[in-house]
Design goal:
Helix content: 10-25%
Structural class: alpha+beta
Number of strands: 7
Number of helices: 4
Largest sheet: 5 strands, mixed
Shape: elongated
Bound molecules: zinc ion
Oligomer: single chain
Length: about 190
């Protein structure tokens, strides 16, 4: 499984402000974001890119650009739709332990996803999971006027009409409209 979003930043925390590390990262989206509903039988989508970690005054600034091409099901017909996901990462991770003294620090940052743990591990999973969910379209359509599936037989109506619901004759529709306007008495 492709997944290298975890960094030991013990050395970087000892380095002077401005010191950097760069690295390529990649993670399978099915592992990172199990909540993201991907199209069935789609090839495994991988989120990948490069990340730069920089020692700053109060922690480590993580910056990166990541990309994935993911197949999401069309909201109407369920056909896979290839959707690009582009993530701009820029987050400050804060230590929870003083690298020199070994004493615990109560971080001012409340979001625990941005905490570097007591073993000096910086973990990008949660921030990237949130970023992917934000970048993912809520409503994916294969085409603007996708006709969807027949509710009765499941036929993909983009491929042609099914036999369940014949189109109403426009003349009958006009008559029906007339009748509903002038209801019969008695
Ligand atoms: Zn569709
Ligand atoms: Zn049908």
């Amino acid at each position: 499984m492709i997944d290298n979003l975890i960094f030991n930043v013990a050395q970087l925390l000892k380095d002077p402000v401005g010191a950097t590390r760069t690295g390529d990262v990649a993670v399978e989206l099915g592992h990172l974001t199990p909540d993201l509903k991907q199209a069935e039988d789609a090839p495994e989508a991988v989120l990948s890119g490069s990340v730069r970690l920089m020692r700053i005054d109060n922690g480590i600034l993580a910056q990166g650009t990541l990309h994935a091409q993911v197949a999401l099901p069309c909201a109407r017909c369920l056909d896979p739709v290839s959707v690009p996901l582009d993530i701009e990462l820029e987050e400050i991770f804060v230590p929870t332990i003083n690298i020199v003294t070994g004493k615990s620090i109560a971080p001012e940052e409340e979001d625990q996803a941005l905490w570097i743990d007591e073993k000096h591990i910086l973990d990008l999973h949660e921030v990237l999971r949130q970023a992917v969910m934000l970048a993912s379209p809520i409503h994916t359509l294969c085409q603007e006027d996708c006709r969807g599936l027949c509710a009765t037989c499941g036929q993909n109506l983009n491929e042609g009409p099914c036999d369940c619901q014949p189109e109403p004759d426009p003349r009958w529709a006009a008559l029906a409209a007339l009748l509903s306007r002038e209801p019969c008495e008695g």
